[in-house]
Amino acid sequence: MESILVTGGAGNIGSALVRALIKRPSTDIVVADNLLTGSIEKIKLDVHNLTFIKCDVNDFDDISSLFYRFRFTHVFHFAAVVGVQRTLSNPLLVLRDITGIENILRLCKNTGVKRIYFSSSSEVYGEPFETPQNENTTPLNSRLPYAVVKNVGEVYLRSFQREFGLPYTIFRFFNTYGPRQSEDFVLPRFVKAALAGTPLQIYGDGSQTRTFCYVDDTVETCVTVHAETVCENDVINIGSDIEMSILDLASMVIRVTDSHSSIEFLPPLAEGDMSRRCPDIGKMRQLLKRPLLPLEEGIRRLMDHYTNR
């Protein structure tokens, strides 16, 4: 019998992960989320093996009782302040997440958790020294608070493994999109604007590049790592390796949605908008053993979601 805690389980990736994990036999899922950026609507499911508890992982007293009540076998620590604008506007709130990481690790160590999975980010790479960005060779150089927290979290996991033997896996997520993503992220924002016929707004000249991975591909990779007990004490990039500019992304959205929207250029962000992002996903491809969902199909799914809800 597995008892799994998903912190941040009411968010985009977290809620999709929960929906996948509850299908596993003999598995009970507990979601802990403070609902700062998540929504309980994303995990309203008619199942017997899912429990939601509103709490703050950064408050030790708030989170510790869950560990002693449920005796988790595994923990997915996905709780974090997310979103470029939100993290830039609230740097001290972002840095508080370091406390949550330490709380979770201490409790995992003290209650016999078999493995912890940590949601890191492509932001740890900063401005890339090589492309694609590889888990083992690319320096981690970003100084933004969000990236610093993820870097510190990775160091914490390695340190707890060395000192206490607590197994871990680090997921470095690149841009993941899907129907339950907050609408201030780029792809939901572009698709909604295109459907409404309003301008798609781009920060800067749109030459900055990103890759976009549909949430189902992201989650299937995470669940496969867990189910096959692979990538122990290791790091895995999770994302797409098809790189494109934000300007090309806007043009694709307009074409796929058959929109008459224009493209509007805003002043570039003062910080946090790295010039390139493209991961080496060799490990991910070995696990999935299938092609990733094409971006055009993902945009169609988003379009269907917004037009049919």
Task: Write up what this structure looks like.
The protein is α/β, with parallel strands linked by helices and 309 residues long. The chain has 2 domains: 2-175 and 215-238, Rossmann fold (3-Layer(aba) Sandwich), CATH 3.40.50; 176-211 and 241-308, UDP-galactose 4-epimerase, domain 1 (Alpha-Beta Complex), CATH 3.90.25.10. The chain is 40% helix and 18% strand. The chain has 11 helices and 13 strands. The strands form 4 sheets. The protein has a 7-stranded parallel beta sheet with strand order 3-2-1-4-5-6-11, sandwiched between helices. Strands 7-10 form a two-stranded parallel ribbon. Strands 8-13 form a two-stranded parallel ribbon. Helix 1 crosses helix 8 and helix 7 crosses helix 11. It is globular and about 55 Å long. The two termini are 36 Å apart.
How far do the termini sit from each other? 36 Å
Number of domains: 2
Give the helix level as a range of percent: 25-40%
Structural class: alpha/beta
Largest sheet: 7 strands, parallel
* Rg result: 19 Å
Order of helices and strands: EHEEHEHHHEHEEHEEEHEEHEHH
> What would the principal axes of the Cα set say about the shape?
globular
Spans of at least 5 consecutive residues whose pLDDT stays below 50 are: none
CATH class type of the largest domain: Alpha Beta
With strands numbered from the N-terminus, the spatial order across the biggest sheet is 3-2-1-4-5-6-11
Total DSSP helices: 11
The CATH architecture of the largest domain would be 3-Layer(aba) Sandwich
Rounded mean pLDDT is 94
Number of strands: 13
- CATH fold name of the largest domain: Rossmann fold
Strand residue content:
15-25%
Name the CATH superfamily classification of the largest domain: NAD(P)-binding Rossmann-like Domain
